[in-house]
Amino acid sequence: MTNDRLPISEIWVYLSGDPLFALVLTLATYQLGYMIYVKVNRHPVFSPVAISVLLVTCIISFMDMPYQKYFEGAQFVHFLLGTATVALAVPIYRGFNDLKGKLFPITLALTIGSAVSIFVGVMIAKSMGAGSTIVGSMYAKSVTAPIAMGIAERIHVSPTLTAVFTVITGMLGSILAPYIFNALNIQHWWMRGTAIGVGAHGLGITRAFSINDEAGTYASMAMGLNGVLSAVLLPFIIGYIRT
Amino acid sequence: MIDGLVQILIWQGMGELISKFFIPDIPGPVIGLLLLLGFLVIKGEVNQPLGMVADTFRQHLGLLFVPASVGVVLFLPDLKTHGLAVTLALLVSVVLTIAVTALVLKFFWKATHDE
Fold first, then answer.
1. Which regions of chain B are under pLDDT 70?
2. What is the pLDDT of residues A17-53, one digit of tens each?
3. What letters, b where the CB count within 10 A reaches 16 and e where it falls short, cover B27-54?
4. Which H or E element spans position A8?
5. Nearest to B104 by CA among A197, A179, A105
6. A32, A86, A198, B93: most buried, per Cβ within 10 A?
7. Among all residues of chain B, which has the CA nearest to that of A151?
8. Structural domain boundaries of chain A?
9. Is A87 in Cβ contact with B53 (below 8 Å)?
10. Which residue among B40, B68, B96 sits closest to A120, beta carbon to beta carbon?
11. Hey, where are the domains in chain B?
12. Is there a contact between B68 and A78 if contact means CB atoms under 8 Å apart?
């Protein structure tokens, strides 16, 4: 009998292996974060991403689990980033339907907005003495995370820090946007939506949809367009700056 | 559901191939996005399974970048020393980004439409 059945202990070893643990940890903390987020009427301070990242970080530090080991399991979630990026074509397409001559102003506004985002972020970080890792991760932070990380890889800066800055930017932008709009007397929903989509990407969109559908659609489209334009232009612009 | 996912994966795969062989500067998924967008414009509609998958992704986009963001643990010492720089850079830049984008739209709209 060489073909023995696997002893029960080995099956347990298999199930308790790190990939499964990291996967469950990621999904469960996000689910918990999402429940809290819904409970507080989707207030952006309680972003499910932030809650999940905070919990996972604490738990793996407490367990002394190295990040690389955690990522081995979590990569199955990470993999879907690319797929989610492709899916952004759908909200962009839906937004196209009621553009009626707004495509030019929107493209113009998001190009300028995006340039401001990069310039201000990089300049402040640089002038206050932050190292090149931090400064480099300021480039793509206003772009939606999946595209931002793709850009980060292309321009050889840290995708991780870029993702973290992106999440923080999204939270700050969604919290502050209504005050900014009121202070500047921006009344049209489509303008508010576009601006929040450019500045605060994913979380901004959720925030926009929870207030007004038109704003949400424009936010999704602006985020998508901003992502595409940045992905196409940033590698060339940065290549130009660096040489 | 699976139907929609397969459609997206096919466009992603084509995007990756084009990125790899022709335009390595642009990430494959972004090319896939553009291809799918072109396809939708030609078709003139979003089929229902595709719309469903896209909406699900949009709703829970955040979950997908948890694994990468947890990597912040690797940068904690660096971030601690430059905490103020990072906070200021992120804060000022997001406020200005949103303000400038909104203002450009407002002025452009005022210049072309008299309300």
1. 114-115
2. 667 888 999 999 999 999 999 999 888 788 888 899 9
3. bbbbbbbbbbbeebeeeeebeebbbbbb
4. helix A8-15
5. A105
6. A198
7. B27
8. 1-78, 82-243
9. yes
10. B96
11. 1-64, 66-115
12. yes
* Three-class DSSP labels, A55-69: HHHHHHHHCCCCHHH
pLDDT for the residue B17? 95
pTM summary value: 0.82
Q: Does B71 touch chain A (CB under 8 A)?
A: yes
Contacts of A137 (CB under 8 A, 6+ apart): A152, A157, A158, A161, A162, A164, A165
Nearest-CB residue to A108 (from B63, B95, B108): B108
Task: Tell me the per-residue pLDDT of A75-134, one tens digit each, with 9 for 90 and over.
Answer: 888 889 889 889 988 988 888 877 777 888 899 998 999 889 888 998 999 888 888 888
The tokens describing A43, both together, are 């207030």
Token pair 């990597």 in the structure block, residue? B71
Q: Hey, which bits of A27-71 come out as E strands?
A: none
What is the structure's pLDDT at A1?
A: 46
Task: Enter the tokens of residue B88.
Answer: 């200021």
